[in-house]
Design goal:
Elements lengths: L2 H53 L8 H7 L7 E6 L5 E6 L11 H7 L5 E7 L5 E8 L2 H51 L13 H63 L7 H26 L3 H4 L2 H15 L4 E6 L8 H22 L3 E9 L5 E8 L11 H12 L3 E6 L5 E8 L12
Parallel strand pairs: 5-6
Antiparallel strand pairs: 1-2, 1-4, 3-4, 6-7, 7-9, 8-9
């Protein structure tokens, strides 16, 4: 069942219940009103008739009492008649005047009719006979009035319920239209159409939802663009590394091997300087060894699995000190991180490596401080803090290197922050869960 049908059904049931309850209350009030009116008129007429009958001098032929009682004909709800000893009506003295536009239904008459009121007063006539004055209640005119009022109440309630029903349906029509717009926006988000924006809605609560969906679409679109940029950058890095390896193999390995081959051929001559040739070959081999180590460090630090995170970071810092003697690099390392799993350790190494690379390329700094510690609060965290005294100036890191570090940390469930200001250098802080190395954890070769 749809929301509209469910709401309409509940409104209809509520209206029926209200009408039934209101009808019962109306009938009860009409019954009480009829009873009060009848008793009031009946007691008034009874007192007047009783007074006139007791003061009348009928035995002497005085008929003033009859004129006084006949004057009560304008009173409503009561009928006064003269009857004999056998209750036969001799004369009707008063009849209440009422206008009956229509007789109420029998069920309504039965519902509101009260106990029948009647009273008789004896009169001794001049001829010695005894007659009686009969006073009886006549509730029909009061019942007719109650029926008219009940009809007016009923139709006013029906009109009011119809207006309420129409107003509620108009409100829910507007709400359902807003819900339909929101669902359309969610389907667009689901299908990847992040550029489509939801319009402003008249209802503030739904408009707040639409604003949040638009913000979500914008964030997803931004994340998709970042992912696409990172994917392109990753492909670019792969091609750059391949070109670098190809150039290194051609320039260093190829030329060195060609030189070694030429020296080996020259050593066959009888007058060749074998010792000098051997020294040259040794120098070339040492150079090739350094080139190979540099290439392996770029691809993957083998010492991370063999020696641990601490020695690998020390070797990385030493390499940068050797290449850039003007840059002062200090390392503060927590030895308890040696228990860190290889999966987290490689992330720590890559973040430190990227930070040092950014400092050398962009910061123009003369000192950088690296801090890698184990925070035992919050179930244990690996905290990396890198600060330099370079030119700074950026509010947020926009480069691919910073994006890659942020993605690396956040994908691992950590937190990443980048702070920078003009002439205040750059401060990068990253924290990741501390996952301890298992005894049977395979080596990351």
């Amino acid at each position: 069942m749809s929301l509209r049908s469910l709401i309409n059904l509940r409104i209809l049931l509520s209206a029926i219940l209200i009408l039934i309850l209101g009808g019962a209350i109306t009938i009860w009030q009409a019954s009480q009103s009829v009873e009060r009116e009848l008793k009031s008129s009946f007691h008034l007429v009874s007192q007047m008739v009783k007074s006139e009958a007791s003061q009348a001098d009928i035995s002497r032929g005085n008929h003033d009492w009859l004129q006084s009682i006949t004057a009560l004909r304008n009173l409503r709800h009561v009928q006064v008649s003269l009857i004999d000893r056998d209750d036969t009506v001799i004369k009707i003295l008063t009849v209440s005047e009422r206008e009956e536009p229509g007789r109420p239904p029998a069920w309504f008459i039965a519902a509101v009719t009260t106990d029948y009121l009647e009273q008789k007063y004896p009169l001794k006539m001049p001829d010695g006979s005894v007659q009686r004055i009969k006073i009886s209640a006549d509730p029909m005119d009061e019942i007719s009035e109650a029926w008219g009022e009940s009809q007016a109440y009923f139709w006013s309630v029906v009109l009011m319920m119809a207006v309420i029903f129409l107003a509620i349906n108009m409100v829910f029509h507007s709400m359902l239209r807003a819900v339909s717009t929101i669902l359309s926006g969610l389907r667009q988000v689901e299908s990847g159409e992040y550029d489509q924006k939801l319009p402003s809605l008249k209802i503030s609560e739904f408009d707040a939802i639409a604003v949040e969906i638009n913000n979500l679409s914008e964030a997803l679109n931004h994340a998709r663009q970042n992912n696409q940029s990172l994917a392109r950058h990753s492909l670019h890095i792969q091609e750059s590394e391949r070109r670098y390896l190809s150039r290194e193999l051609h320039d260093e390995m190829g030329q060195s091997l060609t030189a070694v081959k030429a020296m080996a051929v020259a050593s066959k001559h009888s007058n060749a300087d074998v010792v000098g040739i051997a020294d040259s070959i040794i120098d070339i081999c040492n150079h090739l060894s350094g080139v190979v180590r540099s290439m392996m460090r770029t691809l993957h630090p083998l010492s991370l699995a063999d020696l641990g995170l601490g020695p690998t970071l020390i070797d990385l810092v030493g390499e940068h000190r050797r290449r850039h003697p003007d840059l002062v690099v200090t390392l503060d390392y927590d030895d308890s991180l040696e228990l860190l799993s290889d999966e987290v350790a490689i992330h720590v190494y890559r973040i430190v490596q990227e930070c040092l690379t950014n400092v050398i390329r962009h910061a123009h700094a003369d000192s950088v401080k690296l801090t890698v510690t184990h925070s035992r609060s919050d179930d244990g965290l690996v905290v990396i803090h890198v600060e330099d005294n370079g030119i700074g100036g950026q509010v947020e890191g926009k480069g691919f290197g910073v994006r890659a570090m942020r993605e690396r940390v956040e994908n691992f469930g950590g937190c990443f922050s980048f702070e920078s200001g003009p002439d205040h250098g750059v401060s990068i802080k990253a924290s990741m869960p501390f996952i301890e190395k298992q005894q049977d954890e395979p080596r990351q070769d």
